[in-house]
Amino acid sequence: MDHAADVYKTDLMTVTRHVLNEQSKYPESRGDFSILLSHIVLGCKFVCSAVNKAGLAKLIGLAGETNVQAIRVTGHFDLQGEEQKKLDVLSNEVFVKALISSGRTSILVSEEDEEAIFVEPSKRGRYCVVFDPLDGSSNIDCGVSIGTIFGIYIINDGGDPTLDDVLKPGKNMVAAGYCMYGSSCTFVLSTGSGVNGFTLDPSLGEFILTHPDIKIPNKGKIYSVNEGNAKNWDGPTAKYVESCKFPKDGSSPKSLRYIGSMVADVHRTLLYGGIFLYPADKKSPSGKLRVLYEVFPMSFLMEQAGGQAFTGKQRALDLIPEKIHERSPIFLGSYDDVEEIKALYAAEE
Ligand code: AHG
Ligand code: MN
Ligand code: MN
Ligand code: MN
Questions:
Q1: How far apart are the C-alpha atoms of 314 and 171, rounded to whole Å?
Q2: Predicted pLDDT at 20
């Protein structure tokens, strides 16, 4: 009896291997995507490590001093001696440097940078990456799950890169994903043929496939919204949330779960089912979440997992953003749950 096989799975399906398998279906791909992804994964591993230390740093009062632990990340960039930075600024720098050093990107759009970053010609590649380097930053200091969200477009043919390469509907993305820094570090990715989840094995430093082919339940028992905004909601949202709490069909009320980090709320919705809402309200008529690097990637994943994503007016992935930091209301999750709120908005028209 081969005991090793019992203890050690020998067929390690890492993110890189998984993507190489998928990419082999597209002979024209020259491995560029795998190289780009490996740099995104490197950034996530760095942030995972920094997030785990952040609490400690806070405890032993390192915050605000020079970053004494010289964090050297092999090869690409060295943050040694950097002033202790806020985690979202540090994370942003790590992803920007990793993506540029991949030599596979031409434009980067980050929540942390007012302007798009146009990569210098000698380092340009065929991809444009839009990302939220640290999502849920209000939860950093209390140790609640936070994350990174990203979406990937292929640059338009010919000519120098322009904003038109990223001001495209989310349905044009070739890939989207997130990394959640929680009790474990989970990387969830879709390249357009389903959704797969990988968990970081710290002993290997590799993300291993743990959630193959994720499918969201058609209907869920959870709704996820910041009820604190209830007085500012429009009619259909208010009616929908009311129906979650006081169902008219005699079914039991849905449970409310709201973490306040989009990555964590969406990850739970993807695995357990239900609906996540960040509606428009009187104070923020376009809602709060950003189209390019929060709404689109999460909507892409939801559709790939069999769910759907709606803005209150249309399918979220059909939106065409006019500005790189544009916001949109979003209702996403289990197909049947989103259908209910779509019906309420349709009745308003
Ligand atoms: P970020 O930290 O990247 O700015 O994102 C925070 C977002 C999102 O993570 C979450 O769903 C939402 O803010 C929570 O907003 P409220 O605190 O208004 O509910
Ligand atoms: Mn965010
Ligand atoms: Mn952010
Ligand atoms: Mn923010």
A1: 13
A2: 85
Please tell me the number of the ligand nearest to residue 137's CA.
1
CA distance 348 to 100: 46
- Confidence at 56, pLDDT banded by 50, 70, 90: low
- What interhelical angle do 335-348 and 235-245 show, nearest 10? 140
- Ligand index nearest the alpha carbon of residue 265: 1
236, 242, 246, 247: CA torsion to nearest 10:
20
Judge if the beta carbon of residue 288 lies within 6 A of ligand 1: yes
Give backbone dihedrals phi and psi of 65, rounded to 5 degrees, phi first: -90, 175
Structure token digits, residue 116 = 């798009």
Say which residues have a Cβ less than 8 Å from residue 293's Cβ, sequence separation at least 6: 109, 110, 111, 130, 131, 132, 149, 150, 151
Could you give phi then psi for residue 342, rounded to 5 degrees?
-60, -40
- Amino acid present at 297: P
Q: Is the ipTM of this complex over 0.85?
A: yes
How far apart, in Å, are the Cα atoms of 340 and each of 238, 343, 346?
Answer: 13, 5, 10
> Does the Cβ of 281 fall within 6 Å of ligand 1?
no
Rounded mean pLDDT of the chain? 89
pLDDT at residue 69, as a whole number = 43
> Which residues have CB under 8 Å from 258's CB, separation 6+?
224, 225, 226, 227, 265
Q: Coil, strand or helix: which one is 72?
A: strand
Per DSSP (E only), the strands in 202-315 are: 206-211, 222-224, 255-256, 275-278, 308-310
Q: For ligand 1, say whether the CB of 260 is within 6 Å of any of its atoms.
A: yes
Is residue 287 a contact partner of residue 280, using CB atoms and an 8 Å limit? yes
Give the 3-state secondary structure percentages of the chain, helix then strand then coil, rounded to 5: 40, 25, 40
**Contact call for residues 32 and 104 (beta carbons, < 8 A):** yes
Considering only CA atoms, which of 270, 172, 179, 259 is closest in space to residue 217? 270
